[in-house]
């Protein structure tokens, strides 16, 4: 199992899956959600208490995350008010 040095290393490794999910969400009319938003949502909610996640599980989580849940997470965290400041992984 691959170990990641830090969150940037993880983000860069899973970026293709994030891009794929972002494309799907844009088709579903969640046009404001970007790759880093999906990542931040999963890091903050689903993966925050997990240790030694397998890459297959991480990718599965990305591909199956719900756009509404991400949108609500962003709204609750004042995403729209802080749009410029939240783009830390771009």
Report on this structure:
The protein is mainly alpha-helical and 90 residues long. It has one domain (7-76). The chain is 57% helix and 0% strand. The chain is built from four helices and no strands. The termini are far apart. The mean pLDDT is 87.
Indicate the structural class. Answer: mainly alpha
What percent strand? under 5%
**What is the 3D form?**
globular
Give the H and E element order: HHHH
Count of alpha and pi helical runs? 4
Give the overall pLDDT as a whole number. Answer: 87
Task: Give the end-to-end Cα distance, rounded to a whole number of Å.
Answer: 26 Å
Quick summary:
This protein has 90 residues and is an all-alpha fold. The protein has helices spanning 7-27, 35-44, 55-64, 67-76. The protein starts with 6 loop residues before the first helix and ends in a 14-residue tail after the last helix.
Helix and strand layout, with pairings?
Layout (H helix, E strand, L loop, with lengths): L6 H21 L7 H10 L10 H10 L2 H10 L14
Name some characteristics of this structure.
90 residues; mainly alpha
